[in-house]
């Protein structure tokens, strides 16, 4: 009485995913249901087209890069495990996790893993450095045609200047983490800048308050 | 200072992940997800085997849907007729009505209008006891309106809104369309327009006879010894009438089905109506009157007095006129 017997989720699999990603049982079954509804080819894997079919994702400026993040190096299909692993980066950190066993391996949704995810969005060639070109590429994707090349170039230069500590004109992962911490050290003015920016960006995506934190709906 | 931060990408990431998990658009193009399964396989994308009990229930549901509900819906119209007849039988028994149908071979067919003399609202039940008819009338409010609307769901009746009643073309068109459809029941009309006490047949309104459809006349005669079926609407209302009827000895009546009639060449609607009326009167032993049943409540038209005056005038003036004409005619012939 189930659907597509060959791709049914078995209890053992659910347990494994739970251990690896930290999602609860019901969250995993709900996400599995979502996975199968996206899987139009009904072969147990998702392709890039399956993701592109989501209109709100297709209009995301970084949509292509983010979709790419789901797929392992050089592959065109992602199975449910891979799907969950990528999603796990954005699972909200729960309070009871903060006191977990410090010897256990770092959870997928830890702050540094989130930052690594963001870092990898820039670093296409996986050389563990964000070059000026790679930064410009992402900037161009986010702003579209609305900012001139010179202006964008100067933004990129300024960013690298501020973040680069070892003088190689590239941003390594450590420098990336440090730069994000700077932003996190919120003083009043930069916090206002941040909220203003978020409000503008939110407006562009037509978010309403209830939609804002969708992942929490699974809880 | 530039507003750009390296971690701005995280905003887009978060939005993208939210959309991967759930988006507003793609879920509209597949069946709606239900909170709890409604036992239809077409709705169970991700319901795996849960328990044997549920499977048994599902199988029972399947048998019910394919074995009972599906055939019922197919046979709806044929069953609906049977149900109606059964309902009428029950009504008839409750009135202790003893009905004798004569000349059943002339029973109205689906392609015409059935007309009968009108004595009581029960006439409809008496006739509907033998076959199903489509009723015509004005839509009421309240309980009667509710019943009317309920009736329409099972077989096509012709109910008019109050405003439409005035529009004769609309009424005529709807009737003609209904009669033209051979699958619909014959229309039942009482052309007298009001209840008469079953001793005479009064003027038939010509509107039903203008349509050019086949008319099936029916005569209904009640035996007054066992109970008075006549509803004197000016004296008491429907409820009291039913009480009186149900407390009589019985309602004994005879129904004669008369052969179908069509309008002849050169005959207008009024003449046709009168012809039908006289046939019914003859069969039922009623007095055939030209007077309008509406005279129960309204005054007679002045035009009739004027008609009398005109007739008399012709007599007075026309006697000499007639003699002159006869003389001139005979002069011409010779």
From TrEMBL, chain A:
On whether DNA-binding is a keyword of this UniProt record, the answer is no
According to its UniProt record, where is this protein located? Cell membrane; Cytoplasm; Nucleus
> Which protein, by its recorded name, is this?
Calcineurin like EF-hand protein 1
What is this protein's gene name? CHP1
* MF-aspect GO terms: calcium ion binding
Q: What GO terms fall under cellular component here? A: cytoplasm; nucleus; plasma membrane
List the keywords (alphabetical).
Answer: Calcium, Cell membrane, Cytoplasm, Lipoprotein, Membrane, Metal-binding, Myristate, Nucleus, Phosphoprotein, Protein transport, Repeat, Transport
In this protein, which residues make up the domain named EF-hand? 26-61, 110-145
Q: Name one GO biological process term.
A: protein transport
Family indicated by similarity? Belongs to the calcineurin regulatory subunit family. CHP subfamily.
From TrEMBL, chain B:
Give residue ranges for domain Phospholipid/glycerol acyltransferase. Answer: 112-223
User: Where does it live in the cell?
Assistant: Membrane
Its Gene Ontology molecular function terms?
A: glycerol-3-phosphate O-acyltransferase activity
Per the UniProt record, one Pfam family is Acyltransferase
Q: Could you tell me the Gene Ontology terms of the biological process aspect for this record?
A: phospholipid biosynthetic process; triglyceride biosynthetic process
Q: In which pathway does it act?
A: Phospholipid metabolism; Lipid metabolism
Give the top-rank taxon of the lineage listed in the UniProt record for this protein.
Eukaryota
Keywords assigned by UniProt?
Answer: Acyltransferase, Lipid biosynthesis, Lipid metabolism, Membrane, Phospholipid biosynthesis, Phospholipid metabolism, Transferase, Transmembrane, Transmembrane helix
Q: Which GO terms describe its cellular component?
A: endoplasmic reticulum; membrane
Into which family does the record put it? Belongs to the 1-acyl-sn-glycerol-3-phosphate acyltransferase family.
By what name is this protein known?
Glycerol-3-phosphate acyltransferase 4
> Which organism is this protein's natural source?
Nothobranchius furzeri
The gene behind this protein is GPAT4
